[in-house]
Structures are given as C-alpha cells and as structure tokens.
Amino acid sequence: MNIYRTKAKKLSGTDYGEVYKKSFNFFKLIKSKSRRRPYARSAYFNKEKIFLELFWHHINSKENHRDKIRRMKYFPCALELIKQSRLEPVSKENPNKRSELLHRFAGETREGDVFYVQIKEEKRLGEKWLISVFPTDKRKKTPR
C-alpha cells in the first residue's frame, strides 16, 4: 500500500473540548463555502465530491472520549489527503451492505504518524462519504 505524506500536522491537545473545537473549525470553514452539504473534492476520484457530514455523525456515536480525540486530531491531515492524494487505495465491497464500496487510503503526518482515511461509495448513486479517520498504533520508521 502506498502512503501519502501530508504537510499538515495533526492537531495538538488532550482535552476533548479543545481538540473538538480545533477540528470542527476546519469543518466549519468548508461548510461555510457550500450552501448544501459540506464536501471536499478528491484528486484520486477525478475531483468528485467527498461529503464530510457522516464523519461527524460517526464521531458523535463513539462512547469513548479518548477514541474521539484520537480520531479528530487527524481531521486536517485527512482533508489534505482527500484533496491531494492520487495514490490508489485498498478498495473492497462492504461485507455488511453489498451496495457499498469501502476505500481505505493510507497517510503519514509530518511527524511520522501513520493514519487511515476510510471513504464509503454508494454503487447506485456514486456518492462518496468520509466515514472515518483513525491512526495506527505504531509509528512508521522512515529515514528522513
């Protein structure tokens, strides 16, 4: 799997309110540019729209605050990956719902943390949604 190196740093902070405010400000900036559903245009999918609202529903459904913080810290990196990366993701059919494809992109922050961005594609409509952003537990050892 190819890994896209982002220029964006992951967000700092350990308090839920602090990290939520920082990451949601990135979302609000994108939301203010659109009248309808907020989206980012993907380089890999030929500048098609990737809708972002489902990510926030997914985050809010999590019970563990530590897990929410861990995922929200990578939101700016995920946006850059969606907008800039042309590297091929790992794609497979959703085992729970045959009408969906799941695309998983790999990225690396400036600090060397590896993370994944998962995008859901509805086959019938062709709509794509950002579902999740999550880091791996290990750091990738790369010579700089």
> Count of helices?
4
The ordered H/E elements are EHEEHHHEEEE
**How does the helix and strand content classify structurally?**
alpha/beta
Q: Rg, please? A: 15 Å
Mean pLDDT: 90
Give the overall shape, derived from the CA principal axes. Answer: globular
What's the total number of strands? 7
User: In which range does the helix fraction lie?
Assistant: 25-40%
Biggest β-sheet strands, sense, barrel: 7 strands, mixed
Number of individual domains:
1
Query: Into which percentage range does the β-strand content fall?
Result: 25-35%
Poorly predicted runs: none
Q: Kindly, what is the distance between the CA atoms of the first and last residues, rounded to a whole number of angstroms? A: 20 Å
Write up what this structure looks like.
- Strands 1, 2, 3, 4, 5, 6 and 7 form a seven-stranded mixed β-sheet that branches.
- The chain is built from four helices and seven strands.
- The chain has 144 residues and is of the alpha/beta class.
- The model has no long low-confidence stretch (mean pLDDT 90).
- It is 31% helix and 32% strand.
- It is globular and about 40 Å long.
- It has one domain.
- Helix 1 (16-32) crosses helix 3.
- It starts with a strand and ends in a 5-residue tail after the last strand.
